[in-house]
Amino acid sequence: MGARWWAVQERLRVAQHRFGRPPGSVVMLAASKAQPVEYIRQLAALGQRAFGENYLQEACPKLDGCADLDLEWHFIGAIQGNKAAQVAQRFDWVHTLASEQLALRLAAARPPARPPLNVCLQVNIDAEPSKAGVAPVAVADLARAVARLPQLRLRGLMAVPAPASDFADQRRPLRALRELWLELRGQGFDLDTLSMGMSGDLEAAVAEGATIVRIGTALFGPRPTRH
Ligand SMILES: *Cc1c(COP(=O)(O)O)cnc(C)c1O
Known about the structure:
Belongs to the pyridoxal phosphate-binding protein YggS/PROSC family. Helix content is about 40%, strand content about 15%.
């Protein structure tokens, strides 16, 4: 576990240097779905602070099992309407906001005593009909709706592009996401986060301006199968 964590940190360091990104400008989110709480605690002991979970039911006992640690929890999975309230209550970030209806549900359930829930809009950057995320042409309207909700803090955009092995092919959709992000910033949205890049395209994501990379396999090894 430790060796993998250091290896990914090194990949990140090298990529930041190679692509002219300031050291520390890209945060690694540990995508810990299907991994046990002991692994999370081991990574936390090394200094890993941000963790991403995809399934609420699986995540809740892990959050409980780490309640004594100062960790930051990011929800990176699909959110069913009936789970929105618990996500808003338990997590610090949501990366997969893609509808106004979900935004309203999250906002209504965010406890007033807590800081606003940090959110990224998930964009269907490849425009694949079957994929999650808001269409690029609809992002600005959704951003406007989210920005009106004081319980949410709109931080940026997130995407999961179709896997590609060629570096240039990896960069293309990531660049499209950054361009959309720059457009929104140009329209006055105060965005500081681009959540993109996974184990296979970390370097391409750093090259294209990612500020959060979400890393599972390279950190934990192959995922155990879910039951
Ligand atoms: C699982 C997951 C990741 C991590 O993927 P790896 O290829 O294992 O690094 C990143 N983002 C999301 C949304 C995921 O579900």
